[in-house]
Structure formats: C-alpha cells, structure tokens
Amino acid sequence: MTEERYLKRTIIKEELTSGFLQEERTARVYLPPGYQELLSYPVVYCQDGEDFFNFGRIATIANQLILDEDIEPFIIVGADVDKRKRTSEYSPDGERFADYVRFFAEELVPYMEAKYPIRSSGAERILAGDSLGGTVSVHIALHYPDLFRRVISLSGAFYPASQERIAAAADLSWLRMYMLVGLQETAFETDRGVFDFVDLNRKTRDLLAGRNADLHYLEKDGRHLWGFWQQQLPDALSYFLR
Question: Is the pTM of this model over 0.90?
C-alpha cells in the first residue's frame, strides 16, 4: 500500500438546519473504500469535525485500517463547531449545551441515518472527541443511552460540572469507553484556567469505574495537542471496530 492510496478518500459536506440551535450546521461524511448503498456500516460520530479530518487525519487513518488492518468498513460523521461557541455547546454548564446535545441526538443522527446506510444499533455507533469534545461525547451518551454506548475520549476536559453529572448516574454498566490522557498535560491552560488533565481524567475514570462502566484507560507520553491524538487514533478506532 502507498500513501497515495490512503489519500483517495470520499468526503462529503452536508449542511443541515438545526431547530434546537436555530442555525445551519455543517457535517463532514467519510465514506469507506468500496462503499455501497446496499450494505450497512458502523459509524463514528466526531465532535470538532473539521479538526478530526484536518488535524487528526481520521479519513486517511480509516483508509489504512480498512485497506491494511482488516477492519470492517465504517462511516465517519464529523460535526463542525464554531470555536467561539464551542465551550458554550460542549460544556455541561454552557448556555447552548442542552440544545447542542438535542441537536446531535435528535437532528444530526436521524438526518445521517436517513441519508446513509448507517446501522442503527447503539453498539455500532461510536462517539469520539478531544478535550471538551470528549466531555460532551460522554454527556450525549448519558442523555441518550439507547443511541450511544461507546465513547472515545482523547484528553477529556472533565471539569467539576462534568464529574458531578457522572457521579449522579447510578449504573453505567452499559457504557464502554476508550479514555486516553497525555502525561505531560498536568498544567494545560484553558479558557477556564489552568488544569491538570491527568488528575481530571483519573478522577473521572474512578467515577466511571465505580458505576461499572467498561473502561479502557490509558496514560501515555503526550501533550494536549493533535499531534498526540492523531498518533493514538488508529488504536482507539480499532478498539471498537475490530
């Protein structure tokens, strides 16, 4: 296989109107090699869609996994976000959070499943996100456990408001998570101050484990950057798709 073959990707931009968010939203859809409408496919839904495609190179990684690693072909849906509204939408104490969660589950998912042959089983939908994107992915699953049971969290920004919501759940035995944090993320500056992401993730891991969530938890050398997360994406995707 050559790099050129990996780069032959089919990516479609979709525009949909959200009644909950009262605006147009863009999503990027990756279709796997050999895509056929008569088949059906697992799906990975990504927060920060533009970043996952541009900086995470998720479409190229997907091609590599499918063409070389015998991973079943899958579809990727990346939901773009306006960075100016990102914290408001992704953080559970944000003004637009409730509307964003409803948009994702009640508008984006039905739109994509009506247009593409995506399997409608919670076991074959995966949510993926980095930092606050990892946080909101967990909360979407908590709000809609029938839709989502699998989450990839890359350096999740599990601030106290997130931990409180997780702590309020009685039983999370239905939830499977791939959690990763970089060991050099101990003093990362955010729009809310400086946080130790290793500590945030360890505490959240313990909260999830205490509620019987199925966890694959990793700490590796790395910083709060796409260069780190991109390297980990193949293993994260393979964990659920192999």
Answer: yes
